[in-house]
Amino acid sequence: MDIIRIVLELLYWNFGGKMGKKITITGAGGYIGRHVVNAFLNKNIPVTAVDINTNFIDNRASIVECNIFEDKGDIYKKINEPEICLHLAWQDGFNHNAQSHIMNIPKHYTFINNMIENGLKQIVVLGTMHEVGYWEGAIDENTPTNPISFYGIGKNTVRQIVQEISKKKGVIFQWLRAFYILGDDLQNRSIFTRILEMEKEGKPTFPFTTGENKYDFIDIDILANQIVASVMQTEVTGIINCCTGNPISLKEKVEQFIFEKNLKIKPEYGVYPSRPYDSPAIWGDPTKITQILKNYNP
User: Fold this and answer.
1) What separation in angstroms does the CA of 220 have from each of 182, 244, 296?
2) Which of 188, 233, 252, 260 has the smallest number of CB atoms closer than 10 Å to its CB?
3) Long-range contacts of 205-208 (CB under 8 A, 24+ apart)
4) Helix or strand holding residue 118 (H, E)
């Protein structure tokens, strides 16, 4: 198996064109990152995987353990001098009001600017629906942004900065806007994680909102494949919604989750109010990602 892997890697790096470009993924050990790394590798696309904690990264990748924000040396060289950087690294992604979302903005700028100045040709960054803020309906690349949480503000600010740098330097820019991610539920710290934890504790019920808010739910592995497809093409750029385009109520999704997992626990609706930045119904316009998946399927 090792011989087969080596041969595949040699073919990859010497094939030329898009498939011959070096790809580095930051935040590769995180909840989303580890699935994205696996998705690339499962399509025989070698990647350099970078993170502070590399324990959960597939060892088929070329792994670099470092803090991209604190490294004072030539970070571009240290992480394999990529032509494509998929920037997933983000601190406290599950805590929407953590101060780190604001404090780390200059660090993202410094890292990405350094990469571009040293020769990066394509920068791809993971975004979030929370950049938009309170909105009802479908969102696309032209939907105005008015983020309310620190998380949304931080992401939106980094998007604007990277978009401007890329334009000035002639670098391919893709901003992959993610929505409500499901799957690998013990790791995503969502309501679904809490349901599993409380079921294990033997709790008969769990307090919940009304559950009427509608979101664009996407499975983590489907998201990972959408990310791979987006990165591996350059015809579609700018803001790309990684989504299904199908809004479903949180109540419906929770009850479906409980049924599929054969859980005994039941929700207590209406105990908690919705968060002020939670839209009544928000989902992604899938036009761009549909085009990408139609034309590119490695």
Assistant:
1) 6, 12, 19
2) 260
3) 205/265, 205/266, 205/267, 205/268, 206/265, 206/266, 206/267, 206/268, 207/268, 207/271, 207/272, 208/254, 208/267, 208/268, 208/269, 208/270, 208/271, 208/272
4) none
Q: What's the pLDDT score for residue 110?
A: 95
> Which residue of the set 31, 76, 109, 151 is catalytic?
151
H or E, element range at 172 = strand 172-178
Binned at pLDDT 50, 70 and 90, residue 161 comes out as very high
pLDDT-derived band at 20 (thresholds 50, 70, 90) equals confident
Question: Which tokens in the block code for residue 53?
Answer: 């904690």
Residue-range domains of the chain with CATH: 2-182+217-246+282-295 (3.40.50.720)
- Sheet (strand 84-87) strand order: 62-65, 48-51, 23-26, 84-87, 122-128, 172-178, 238-242
Taking only the tens place, the pLDDT of each residue in 60-86 is: 999 999 999 987 678 999 999 999 999
The model's pTM is 0.89
